[in-house]
Amino acid sequence: MLPNVVLFIDDDADDQAIFNEATGLIDPTIQRQFASNGLEALKLLRQENAVLPDLIFLDINMPIMNGMECLAELKNIDTLRHIPVIICSTSAYTGDQEKCEELGADFYLVKPNTLLQMSTALQFVFSKYQGKKIAEPEQVVAA
């Protein structure tokens, strides 16, 4: 089951472009939303009549509000805490992974560098998506 709407929160325009293109290659009907930091994402999600995503992909290192702060906020908001959050970060540091898990991340993806790697990683994550949850949470390191 593929998600209908995904939100990608990342301050890097190149990473946003790769995510956008990779998602479109998998299924061009998936609606893609973008935010450049955690605060911008929370404002987007709290708007009246906001289209809530089925999955959120969240970078850790961002200005204004980083990914861990955003994750903590997401998991404390009743209307948003059910949305699976996939950390998508360049950090392979175990401490970051453990902290994200403690904060409620559903999945940890070490950020792929190429369109092919991103497409493969997204296909894997989407294959784990089942309604409003991720089956078998685990870490994926893009090859």
Q: Could you explain how this protein is built, in words?
A:
Helix 2 runs parallel beside helix 3 (67-75). The chain has helices at residues 13-26, 38-46, 67-75, 94-103, 115-128, and strands at residues 5-9, 31-35, 55-58, 85-89, 107-110, 129-130, 133-134, 139-141. The chain starts with a strand and ends with a strand. The protein has a single domain, classed as Rossmann fold (3-Layer(aba) Sandwich). A hairpin with a 2-residue loop joins strand 6 (129-130) and strand 7 (133-134). The chain is an alpha/beta fold and 143 residues long. The model is unreliable at 136-143 (pLDDT under 50). The longest helix has 14 residues, at 13-26. It has five helices and eight strands; from the N terminus they run E-H-E-H-E-H-E-H-E-H-E-E-E. The protein is globular, with a radius of gyration of 14 Å. The relative contact order is 0.18. The protein has a six-stranded parallel β-sheet, with helices on both faces. This is Response regulatory domain-containing protein. Residues 5-126 form the Response regulatory domain. The modification 4-aspartylphosphate is found at residue 59. Keywords: Phosphoprotein. InterPro entries: CheY-like_superfamily (IPR011006), Sig_transdc_resp-reg_receiver (IPR001789), TCS_response_regulator (IPR052893).
Write the layout of secondary structure elements.
Layout: E1 5-9, H1 13-26, E2 31-35, H2 38-46, E3 55-58, H3 67-75, E4 85-89, H4 94-103, E5 107-110, H5 115-128, E6 129-130, E7 133-134, E8 139-141
Parallel strand pairs: 1-2, 1-3, 3-4, 4-5, 5-8
Antiparallel strand pairs: 6-7
Helix pairs in contact: 1-5, 2-3
Domain Response regulatory: 5-126
Protein name: Response regulatory domain-containing protein
Keywords: Phosphoprotein
